[in-house]
Write a structure and sequence with these properties.
By secondary structure, the chain is an alpha/beta fold. The chain has 2 domains: 160 residues, P-loop containing nucleotide triphosphate hydrolases (Rossmann fold, 3-Layer(aba) Sandwich); 63 residues, no CATH class. The protein is 26% helix and 25% strand. Strands 6-7-8-3-9-10 form a 6-stranded mixed sheet, sandwiched between helices. The chain has a 4-stranded antiparallel sheet with strand order 2-1-4-5, with helices on one face. Strand 7, helix 6 and strand 8 form a beta-alpha-beta unit. Helix 3 packs parallel to helix 5. Bound molecules: adenosine-5'-triphosphate. The site of adenosine-5'-triphosphate has 11 residues, from strand 2 and helix 1. GO terms for molecular function: ATP binding.
Length: 244
């Protein structure tokens, strides 16, 4: 269970999140959408315990997001995953598995069927961005987390890696894990997400259940001119009163 209550995050003078409130039940799959700079990554970083709220609270299963009990059950796939550049692919996974006191075998087995299958002995610094993303996802989830946070996970993936990721996410969702994914590609929500959280100017402006409807259709009804997601839209609707 995620409970963000009136959370503000400031970077110096700039409020990246402004009194944001969002609740997500166990097992839900929520897609965060919104224009560049609307606060999606900051919200994920807040949930990952990487930035503290300047005011307000963020709790994961009743404990603050930065608490080690929350960290042990959570994975965060960042847009460019932090990896040890001078380890090989296999060494990276062995190291992370060891840190979580897990056997490395299941993580290494997940390389099969990916472009990394024959790159186990390549240094991480020699991998392409799409390869790094695939390795980053396996490394971030060696501990079978119940809460998975993903920042633009499909960016740089080819069609086959993107399809594999979708099927992994569908499986995790079916297993009851809570998933929060931020994306500019609304098609990613289709058939996967239960809800869209539409962000603007540092707030969740709309919390939109999908009920099986394609995300683009649901969003078009709410926002026919695309003001909330188009990067070339003329004005920022986040200055209006929030409605949910
Ligand atoms: N480390 C930082 N220092 C200062 N300002 C930051 C920092 N990170 C983000 N911001 C600011 O916070 C606001 C929200 O940024 P954030 O990265 O959360 O948006 P986003 O919705 O993820 O954007 P995008 O779609 O472009 O990835 C922006 O105004 C951004 O300039």
């Amino acid at each position: 269970m995620i409970d963000i209550d009136g959370a503000t995050v400031r970077y110096g003078d700039r409020a990246a999140l402004s009194e944001t409130t969002l609740r997500i039940a166990p097992g839900e799959f929520v897609c965060l959408v919104g224009r560049n700079g609307s606060g999606k990554t900051t919200l994920l970083r807040l949930l990952a315990g990487l930035v503290p709220p300047t005011s307000g609270t963020v709790r994961v299963d009743g404990v603050p997001a930065a608490d080690s009990r929350a960290r042990a059950r959570r994975a965060f796939l960042q847009a460019d995953p932090p990896l040890y550049e001078y380890l090989t692919v296999a060494e990276q996974l062995r190291l992370v598995a060891r840190l979580y006191r897990r056997p490395p075998g299941p993580a290494l087995a997940r390389l099969e069927g990916t472009v990394l299958a024959d790159r186990r002995d390549s240094l991480v610094r020699e991998l392409s961005l799409g390869m790094r993303k695939q390795l980053g996802l396996i490394a971030a989830t060696v501990h079978a987390p119940d809460l998975v946070l993903l920042d633009e996970p499909s960016n740089a993936l080819d069609a086959s890696a993107a399809a594999a990721l979708r099927s992994t996410l569908a499986q995790w969702h079916a297993e009851g894990r809570l998933i929060v994914l931020c994306t500019h590609d609304l098609a990613w929500a289709d058939g996967l997400a239960d809800r869209l959280a539409v962000m603007s100017a540092g707030r969740v402006l709309h919390d939109l259940p999908l009920d099986g409807e394609p995300a683009s259709a649901a969003l078009r009804r709410l926002d026919p001119d695309g003001l909330l997601t188009r990067t070339d839209a003329p004005q920022d609707p986040g200055s209006e009163s929030p409605t949910t």
